[in-house]
Specification:
5 helices
Length: 195
């Protein structure tokens, strides 16, 4: 049988075959296009999720760095304060207490700013990191409270109790620096983690 003769005798068969071929190609190409779009959409979603994760990690790192800076500056200041107290110069002690109050106010300001950042850290879904940050915040509050109480105790002549508070403040600062180090390590772990 000759195909040309067959299609000449039955022209509708050629039209139906061409139509079926068009429908099949349309379905196949549509499914391929849909899969490609879906894949691109998923990739975009993953990219956005990764970017958001990176932003939160960066925010956590910036927050811990800010606390670290204040704690280290405060440690240096406390060492200076202890030396000035040993020397007994009342004017210098007063000036050092004013500086201590400035550090305390910076700490309180950072504590207030950190509330929004803590929500972002919670969204990282890392309970260990969140608990470490909550411990850091609690330590920062304790440091602020201790720093506020010391000048008053010296002013009222209770230098022994104030010395005890200074020692406690130094101890809390040392412990807090260990928490800061742990947080930085955990942040580094999360930064390399694939989301």
């Amino acid at each position: 049988m000759d195909w040309a003769a067959f299609f000449k005798e039955y022209p509708a068969v050629g039209i139906v075959a061409a139509g079926l071929l068009g429908i099949i190609l349309g379905v196949v190409l549509t499914r391929w296009s849909d899969r490609r779009r879906k894949s691109e959409f998923q990739n975009r979603e993953l990219d956005q999720h990764a970017a958001l994760h990176d932003t939160r990690i960066k925010g956590a790192g910036d927050l811990v760095d800010a606390f670290d800076s204040i704690f280290r500056d405060l440690i240096c200041h406390i060492e200076q304060l202890v030396a000035v107290i040993r020397d007994g110069d009342a004017d210098q002690i007063t000036e050092e207490f004013h500086k201590l109050n400035e550090f305390r106010l910076k700490m309180k300001s950072l504590l207030a700013e950190s509330k929004g950042e803590l929500a972002e850290i919670a969204l990282l879904n890392d309970k260990k990191l969140l608990v470490m940050f909550l411990t850091l915040i609690d330590s920062a509050r304790t440091i602020s409270d201790e720093a506020q109480a010391i000048p008053g105790e010296y002013a009222y002549g209770d230098s022994a109790f104030a010395d005890t508070r200074l020692k406690k403040l130094q101890d809390v600062l040392a412990e807090t620096l260990l928490v800061v180090k742990s947080i930085k390590g955990r942040i580094e772990e999360l930064a390399v983690e694939i989301v």
